[in-house]
Amino acid sequence: MNTLLLRGGRPWIPGLPTDVADIRIADGRIERIGPDLESTADEIIDLAGALVLPGLVDTHCHLDKTMFGGPWIPNTGGRTLSGRIANGAGRRVELGLPSAEYAANLLGAMVSGGTTAVRSHIDIDPEVGLGGVAAVRAAAAEHSDRVDVELVAFPQGGLLSRPGTAELMAAALAEGVEVVGGLDPAGYDRDPVGQLNVIFGLAERYGAKIDIHLHDGGTLGAWEFDLIVERTRATGLAGRVTISHAYAMGSLAPDEQRRVAENLSEAGVSMVTCAVGEAPVVPVRIMHDVGATLALGNDGIRDLWTPYGDGDMLRRINNVAYRDRLVADPEIELALLAGTYGGARVLGLDDYGLTVGAPADLLVVEAPTPAAAVVVLPPRKLVLKRGRIVVRDGVLVTDK
Q1: Cβ(30)–Cβ(357) under 8 Å?
Q2: Tens digits of per-residue pLDDT, 18-59?
Q3: Distance (Å, whole) CA 136 – CA 103
């Protein structure tokens, strides 16, 4: 039995003080947490009071689109949704996308920042077919001992409006892709009931989860929230449905935000917010107050949609806290909660966290409080995946 003792750290367990405690890890799982544990272990690391956080969870990125680690490509996508979609599809062959190499580069950077689980949306359409699935699976295999990657079959160019896409998405799910995606059922496909029929039908047929990009704003977006909630209740898919971006949520009046959040909580529908550009952010405090699941993600990183991003989920948590004006320490911790435990709920990681019996997925930083870690963005001293050290002082450990 391989054992590791992390001596004298301060584990962040929501709702409890970050007191000094040891963490004993055996065969990749947390065996004990407590003060002054016995010192017998294959390896002992003195954390000297450093803060220990659970592994960060990125529930929304696009690994198949990234050009991370490649040459600088000036962005030509423009500012509209349709323009960016067309630009991304039109230039991917020219730029060698999707690329397993670029996706692996980005995954390595994400791991270096403390991310231990990822959900990536993969473009599916008649031109690219399942090429993105193959590329991201190859990248994920390269980092299989460092990070878990879940895939979404995503109709970026439209579902009903692109004949043949639904059949390709079914093929991806049949090959083991875990999540079926959607895109603006009303605003882009202009047939919300028809698109939801396809998405929920595929989910039921293949036992898949659901994750729908919803950029539509205002009352249109709010109406689509209600449609998705109703469909989730009718199909018994509570806990398996996510609305990503949910821009309308951030622009609704507070009373309407609370109504929507309460419906989400009751139906078991989660939301993911990314704090992208000037786009509205899902209200963190309201979601928490009513018990609705909120998770976070980086969205596009160094791709044909945006030249920005570095894959650091702690920085994304910082962005969300800043954009949602979370200033008191307990409020800032709510953003951290969304980027950790909220993401774990979306991905279905039931045994996640700094708790006895859970996989030892964690990171260590020098920070006086969890809120300070979010604001200061300290270097990552250690990152562990299933009890194995995969990052030391921000650098990937490459020995197997």
Answers
A1: yes
A2: 999 999 999 999 999 999 998 889 999 999 999 999 999 999
A3: 6
